[in-house]
């Protein structure tokens, strides 16, 4: 039977645009509905793909190009990872991943993706899901906001996170990323620094909004983190711009597809709870939804591994939350040298192995 496929994509972010590119490659031109004025119309931030968390894929850039014809130009690759705890530090070297730019910048990933498309993007869209459902044969929910998913189906929230970040000026190695695992700076969370260039970087702290943590003095926490970054880097860093994200939802949708509606990106549950990374799974879910619509795969089956990764990642999160600063010191000092390098550069799936060990201990189903 021949019928006309009409696809609406709600959201011109990573997952929605990856979906559109894949549909176009297969001869379907979707219509994209974007709430904002332009693609990537939000604060500019730096994000990373860390290869230890995307195994067996070690190089996401070549993976997306060679398997799905999606081109990503990263800001740079990551050669060094410096990890600081309260009293210890370690340095890990290798091909550790990539830095990407997001948001309101012409080189952001979302802008790179939109340039790979012919499809029409309707900006300032106020169309609701219900309206699109009436007009289109297939609807892709790609709003980057799990709260939208929970209007349509059950979204199993694991935690919400507060994030605060700043752009800083100083001297940086553009291939080196830093992370701080210290409950005094980011309770049960972590802080990080990602360089944009040799002169500019971004620092961020992120921590879960658990009871007890909710009562902390956020400004004091931020001040302490900023001072610690200056101390660790032995520099007086100048803040040029700041952002805050509240109630960032991390969870997993109950079902990836209802009828001809597909939930992709954060609406699927792409943000992995361990460190809050979601770019890899967001792009993949967009691609997988398109492949299903084109008759080249089954979305539920294709996303099964990502759901398992989510659960493994949640077990790792529950595991790391058990560590006080003394244990974090031990963990960080243990990563120094060959052990850390072997762990980060091995072909083994860290999430799967870590999840297998920690899921029973942390009672993560
Ligand atoms: C501060 C921060 C740091 C992060 N760091 C990392 C990192 O280092 N590594 C990593 O892998 N991940 C990171 N993530 C997570 C990653 O950014 C997300 O998982 C990913 O961007 C989600 O892609 P998406 O397509 O679901 O949503 P997005 O890329 O956010 O796109 C959603 C789009 O939908 C639009 N929209 C919203 N509502 C509507 C509507 N009603 N109608 C139409 N359009 C709508 C939005 O305007 C937006 O354009 C970070 C997230 C944050 C907030």
TrEMBL record:
Pfam families: NAD_binding_8. Residues 1-20 form the signal peptide. Coiled coil: none annotated. InterPro entries: FAD/NAD-bd_sf. Keywords: Signal. This is Flavin-dependent dehydrogenase. It comes from Serpentinicella alkaliphila. The lineage of its organism: Bacteria, Bacillati, Bacillota, Clostridia, Peptostreptococcales.
